[in-house]
Design brief:
The protein has about 350 residues and is α/β, with parallel strands linked by helices. The protein has twelve helices and 14 strands. It has helices at about 20-30, 50-55, 65-75, 90, 95-105, 130-135, 150-160, 210-220, 240-245, 265-275, 295-305, 310-320; strands spanning about 15, 35-40, 60, 80-85, 110-115, 145, 165-170, 175, 190-195, 200-205, 225-230, 235, 250-260, 280-285. The strands form three sheets. It has a seven-stranded mixed sheet with strand order 3-2-4-5-7-6-12, with helices on both faces. Helix 2 links the parallel strand 2 and strand 3 (about 60). Helix 8 (about 210-220) crosses helix 12. The protein starts with 14 loop residues before the first strand and ends in a 22-residue tail after the last helix.
């Protein structure tokens, strides 16, 4: 069902700085079993706040991600709940074997926090985690989460604290937009249909929710109604909510800050196929290429087809509407991008 009125803010969105870091400290004050591990990116992952308040529960593992995962697994076996931090690409590609054997196979409660997802990093292909969801989604028992804004970022910390087994969370760095109202509640079980529509089912995760909402608004101005579904948990996917929206619409569009293979688009395609639901599907994401370096992520989103305009174009073409598609853009949020690398 759509969120209650007032739950979605209007752009340009206000922003918050370090919502994750503050939430982790707040939870750790009442949960002594929570420990924090850093892969030499302490300030960059907002956990300088944790280090300052709980130095005895902070482990600096250096640039040795495989060893960091092994340490986290050992701590979990002794009753701790380790939160592991580095950039998403270093949290998944480098220590994949350790994640599988030291964490996932024994189903240990290790929380892997990967910052700078997808094309949000200006560092080029060595720093851009465009395949992390595909890697983590392939691991049995791994919960894969891609939050959309500062409200969900704050809430995800407590939400995963007692989750059975391991979890991987993608988090944007810097100034995080506030898209939802304070009454919004992140669910690890259900996706949320934010708007109703009968033409397009637009399924989005993470940083792509804001472009999806902007595209839906532009399409609505031209008579195209769109059901926007926010999917914070990609694995396990809430197929029921996605399929319910798809059944009411003519086409399905997925939007993710990730390769179009192996992530949200693939999960939705599998759900449609397994349900025998015939709907045209268009996947918005990084399409079979590595990204380049750039100063800002909005430039990269535009270059690689992850913009609100790209979503509106795909929906317009999939519906076979005549004439040019509507113009779609997200008004810029106040302030600049802090500490992009």
């Amino acid at each position: 069902m759509p969120e209650p009125p007032g739950e979605l803010r209007e752009p340009p969105y206000p922003v918050e700085v370090k919502p994750y870091g503050r939430a982790l400290v707040e939870l750790a004050r009442s949960r002594e079993e929570i420990v924090c591990l850093s892969g030499d990116l302490t300030r960059q992952c907002e956990i300088d706040l944790f280090q300052a308040e709980f130095p005895g529960r902070f482990v600096h593992c250096g640039m040795a991600e495989a060893n960091m995962i092994g340490i986290a697994g050992a701590l979990a076996r002794r009753g701790h709940v380790p939160f592991v931090h580095t950039f998403g690409v270093f949290a998944t590609r480098r220590p994949l074997d350790q994640i599988v054997n030291a964490v996932a196979y024994p189903r240990l409660p290790v929380r892997i926090i990967g910052f700078m997802p997808g094309l949000s990093s200006p560092g080029g292909p060595s720093h851009q985690a465009i395949d992390d969801v595909a890697l983590m989604r392939a691991i049995p028992g791994m919960t894969v989460i891609d939050v959309a804004d500062a409200v969900e970022t704050r809430q995800v910390v407590a939400a995963i604290a007692d989750l059975p087994g391991p979890a991987y969370v993608r988090l944007k760095r810097g100034e995080i937009p506030v898209i939802f109202g304070e009454h919004h509640r992140l669910s690890l079980d259900r996706a949320q249909r934010l708007t109703d529509g009968r033409d397009v089912a637009l399924v989005a995760s993470g940083m792509m929710l804001a472009p999806a909402l902007a595209a839906a608004a532009a399409l609505r101005g031209r008579g195209v109604t769109t059901a926007v579904v926010n999917v914070p948990v990609i694995a396990p996917l809430d197929a029921e909510t996605v399929l319910a929206a798809a059944r009411q619409c003519h086409v399905v569009i997925t939007a993710e800050n990730h390769l179009t293979t192996g992530g949200l688009g693939s999960a939705v395609a599998e759900a449609l196929a397994e349900a025998g639901l015939g709907r045209p599907l268009r996947r918005i994401g990084v399409d079979g290429t590595f990204g380049e370096g750039a100063r800002t992520w909005p430039y990269l989103f535009g270059k690689y087809g992850l913009s609100a305009q790209a979503i509106a174009d795909a929906a317009w073409r999939a519906l076979g509407r005549p004439g040019p598609p509507p113009a779609a853009a997200i008004p810029a949020s106040p302030g600049g991008e802090y500490a992009p690398v």
